[in-house]
Structure formats: C-alpha cells, structure tokens
UniProtKB/TrEMBL annotation:
Full protein name: Exo-alpha-sialidase
InterPro entries with a match to the protein in the record: WD40/YVTN_repeat-like_dom_sf, Xyloglucanase_GH74
Gene3D superfamilies, sorted: YVTN repeat-like/Quinoprotein amine dehydrogenase
SUPFAM superfamilies, A to Z: Oligoxyloglucan reducing end-specific cellobiohydrolase
GO BP of this protein: xyloglucan metabolic process
Length: 365
C-alpha cells in the first residue's frame, strides 16, 4: 500500500509491543508495522484526531525503564519520549507507577486523561506530554477499602464528558464507578443498581466495591452510559445515577469490553464470555453481540469469525472507528485481530500470531 492515502489507523497494544495498521476507507487491505517498543507491555493507546495532524499516544512499560507515555505526530514513523515518562506520582505519595491502563482525550484541545495502576487518574493539558495527579481522587476516603482484582488495582476506564471539561467518569477495579462534576475537586461513587455478585446475599449492592470491567458513552448523548460488569451488563440514562440491567437476551452476562456505535447512541456491542474459570465464549464460538435498541434486544454477529475460539477479549481490546459505515475491531489473547467494515455484519482476520492483545484503538484520519 506504499503511496496510498491513509484513511484509517489501527493501534494494537500487546504484552510485547505495539503494532500499527493502516488502510484506506474501504478497510479491506491492511499494512502493519511493528513491534514498536519491542518487548514492552502496551496496556493503553490513543488516536487523537483533534489537531491538524493526528497524534498517537501509547502507554508502554519496560522492565528496565518502567512505564512511559510515548507520542508520535507522524502516524508512528517516529516516536518521542515524554519528560520523566509523563506520568509519575508526586514525592510523598507513597506510590510508584506500575502501568498506564488508559489514555483518553478530554473535552478541551490538548486535554488528555490517564488511568493508572495503582488506582489513580492523571490529567494533561499539553496533549499528553506532562500529567498531574487528580489529588482529590487519590485522597478519597474510600481508597483504603479499594481492593485489587486479578488484573491489579487500577483506574482502567476514564470517560471525560465530551463537552463539559468539569465532568469526568472513571471506573476502578475493584472499586466501581466514580464521577466528578467540579473539575476534580470532589468525586462521588455512581454505582446504584450494579450488582457485586461475589459478595454475600444482602450485601450485593454496596455504595462502592463493584468489579466494573468497562464503561462507554456516546458523544451526542453523554448522559447515556453502558457498562460491562463482572457479571452483568447495564445502561444508565442519567450519567451513572442509576443503572438498569440490559443483560437479558445475551448468552452470558460476563465479559470485558463494551463499545457504543460512534454515530448511534442506541447501538452497543459486547463480547460475552463465560464467568468463573472458563474465560472463553459460550460454546467456544467467537461472536460479537449487538443491540440496536439500547440493550432491550440482542443479535449475534459471527459471520466470518472462528467456530472454535477458546480465548477471551480484554476490556480495552475492542473499538470502533469513526467512518460513516462504522468499522469494528477486536483483538484476542491468542494474538489475532479481527475487523468488520460493516458494523459487525461480517468479519475478517486482519493479522494473526501477535502477542497477547491488551488494547485496540482505531480512527478515521
């Protein structure tokens, strides 16, 4: 595809580096480069299309140098390191950064949020080159009671309000959903209606402590949130004030990713898997499930996907691009990445035999 205009970029973060895919608007033929940051864990990546030139960000972690946010302004041809890794806990905090789990654009140009392990949220006002700790969340009185899930204790999801820079929703494993509406001065739990199935009967709807796997929202309807829980799929129509179960009709209510259609707030996608020790899809068949009515009914989308699939898809390893006919992508723990250029109706394998895929991001550029 040398010399071809690039209309779509696909970032694939793995446990051993980052791969970058490029295609035109048809998204049928792909060219990949990688690994970028060979043998470094890449748990987060982001395509920032707000400027005149797209900016790529990656949260990589080296066993020698520690976590580092890297930036590219030429679609990955070259990368720059950020000062002191961009994200570091301040002296006296008693914490050391282990991983950057999330990178997300804020409501204002240059604003970028990061979610980290240990559980904290950081904010940048210069496009991800430097970050400051959201101190009120770090000092939250609930923090001593936040537990670590199997993946560690981390703010793995940060959802800035698309038009209100004072409002941010974030999810912690295992602490649940928190929100600020005053620019980070205070944070409140937003977990009413979310079940913590692992707690004893009578204690399964606590104020906080749920194991939320992922949240998503649509930019044109920011009060509408969708959530994939550790057992349970939910929708909120008041920005997390109350959550309603929308799991009926799915083959399993356990899973990790949840993705809203970029142009339709009523269309949402999940990748159900079995709970417990069998972390693979029901009947070991790969399938994305789609709802076009905000979770009232669900449809299986599996055309072109493997009939035998004993692997999971992680919380950040499914994403949609912004084309008019939305493309959908997911990467699995067997190193295969699948794409659909027709909103999930049909699927093609785009690349295989990568390391364990941890995050996927795609955008029309």
């Amino acid at each position: 595809m040398e010399g071809t205009h690039v209309d779509t970029v696909l970032l694939i973060g793995t446990r051993k580096g980052l791969w970058i895919g490029r295609s035109d608007e048809a998204r049928l033929d792909w060219e990949f480069t990688g690994p970028h940051f060979d043998m470094e864990e890449v748990y987060s990546c982001m395509v920032d299309t707000r400027g005149a030139t797209p900016r790529l960000l990656a949260g990589a972690s080296s066993s020698w140098l520690g976590p580092q946010v890297r930036i590219s302004d030429d679609l990955g041809a070259t990368w720059q390191e950020t000062p002191n890794g961009a994200i570091r806990f301040p002296e006296g905090s008693g914490a050391t950064l282990e991983r950057v789990w999330q990178l997300a654009p804020g409501a204002e140009d240059g604003m970028v949020y990061a979610g980290t392990e240990p559980g904290a949220v950081f904010r940048s006002s210069d496009g991800g080159e430097t970050f400051a700790l959201e101190q009120a969340l770090w000092d939250h009185p609930h923090r001593p009671d936040w537990q670590a899930g199997f993946g560690g204790q981390a703010f793995h999801t940060v959802l800035p309000h698309p038009s209100d820079p004072q409002s941010v929703t974030a999810a912690l494993s295992t602490g649940g959903v928190y929100q600020t509406t005053d620019g980070g001065a205070s944070w409140q739990p937003r977990n009413q209606g979310i079940r913590a199935e692992f707690l004893p009967e009578g204690q399964q709807y606590p104020e906080f402590g749920q194991c939320v796997h992922k949240i998503t929202r649509h930019p044109s309807m920011p009060e509408r949130l969708y959530l994939q829980n550790h057992g349970g799929v939910y929708r909120s129509d008041d920005e997390g004030g109350v959550w309603k179960s929308i799991a009926d009709g799915l083959p399993a209510d356990f899973g990790f990713p949840i993705v809203v259609h970029p142009h339709d707030p009523d269309t949402v996608f999940v990748f159900p898997i079995n709970g417990g020790d069998r972390r693979y899809p029901p009947d070991a068949k790969a399938a994305v499930w789609r709802s076009r009515d905000a979770g009232e009914t669900w449809q299986e989308l599996s055309s072109g996907l493997p009939e035998t699939f004993f692997v999971a898809v992680m919380r950040d390893a499914m994403w949609a691009d912004g084309h008019a006919s939305a493309g959908l992508y997911f990467g699995a723990r067997n190193g295969a990445v699948w794409g659909s250029a027709d909103e999930g109706e049909t699927w093609r394998q785009l690349i295989a035999d990568l390391p364990d895929v941890m995050c996927v991001r795609a955008a029309a550029v």
